[in-house]
Design goal:
By secondary structure, this protein is mostly helical. The chain is built from 14 helices and four strands.
């Protein structure tokens, strides 16, 4: 598969409707941190940190979000803020204070989470959120700390009989969540190796999920857990390969790239699903979403389907017009 050009320019959408975090993520993965735009956004992010070390939840601005604190701290590291710098350390300290006795993390119990946000829980430890925080702890040199070891042990114990992971223990879904499974499984492979029994138990589920995704990509639709037929959307298409904007290239580096016919089919469906405003739309909204637009761009660039330099040039052109 040769590199392709996007049908529509995504940058107007991101610059006009993306928040500080989303736009900064875009500039970071396009290697544009030296621009004044990126420096201003980074300063805004640093200033938004709360006295506790946490960052505001998107649900309640006056309350810390465990998810936002972890992911913003990871973004600071991605933006070359040193791991021993106060902003990073205070975020880590806040998160360690939130760790449950089991070793996992819930979202902040002081938050009221909307009913439609099924992936988070304030009473039960969340698997993918715990995995995010493990990533952060490992990134700041705490991979051998007791909190990190305890979190990993809890996460390994949470593996289901089918080899996957639920979002949390009683998430209401009868089967493991493929997205959480993809994120956690490849982290386990990196830490424990390909002979790890947790990895060996889970890889078949991932392979089967990727087979279904490739089939859905060809058909143009999928069947949701509630039985609804939905047109392919960017959330469905991306999450087996890239879970979030702070996710790594582990799946791609493990061989799930354009040499894999299934991945090529997913890329073709992703390119086809771009909207005329330049963005991509997840299933829960009819509008293009800046965050998922940047996620799509990041995946396409990392896979080598779209040329990074061309995107960088377009992104610079938009900055110069501001």
């Amino acid at each position: 598969m040769i590199k392709v050009r996007l049908r529509y320019d995504p940058f107007k959408l991101v610059y006009e409707h993306g928040d500080t975090v989303t736009t900064l993520h875009m500039l970071q993965f396009l290697s544009m941190l030296e621009t004044m735009k990126a420096k201003d956004l980074l300063l805004d992010l640093l200033k938004s940190q709360m006295p506790t070390g946490g960052f505001s939840s998107k649900f309640q601005k006056e309350t810390e979000g465990v998810r936002e604190t972890c992911r913003n701290a990871l973004l600071l590291l991605m933006c070359e803020i040193p791991s021993d710098q106060l902003n990073v350390q205070s975020a880590v300290h806040y998160l360690l204070s939130c760790q449950s006795d089991t070793g996992g993390w819930t979202e902040n119990p002081d938050l009221t989470i909307p009913e439609e946000t099924v992936e988070l829980n304030t009473a039960q430890e969340v698997t993918w959120l715990t995995a995010d925080i493990i990533e952060l702890l490992r990134s700041v040199g705490l991979e051998n700390s007791e909190p990190c070891k305890k979190a990993l042990n809890w996460l390994r114990e949470m593996q289901n009989p089918d080899g996957g992971w639920s979002m949390f223990k009683r998430d209401g879904f009868p089967k493991s969540d493929p997205d959480s499974t993809a994120q956690i499984l490849f982290m386990m492979r990196e830490i424990y190796g390909e002979d790890d029994p947790v990895w060996l138990k889970g890889i078949e589920l991932y392979e089967n999920a990727l087979d279904r995704m490739a089939s859905d990509s060809e058909k143009g639709y999928y069947i949701a857990p509630n039985g609804d037929r939905r047109e392919n959307d960017i959330y469905h298409l991306t999450h087996l390969l890239l879970s979030s904007l702070v996710d790594s290239q582990r799946r791609i580096q493990a061989g799930y790239n354009l040499d894999d016919e299934r991945v090529r089919k997913i890329v073709q469906a992703t390119l086809k699903s771009q909207r005329e405003d330049g963005g991509w739309c997840p299933f829960w909204t009819k509008r293009s979403d800046p965050t998922y637009t940047v996620l799509a761009l990041k995946l396409l660039v990392w896979l080598g389907a779209v040329e990074q330099e061309e995107l960088r040039g377009k992104a610079r052109n938009h900055i110069s017009r501001e």
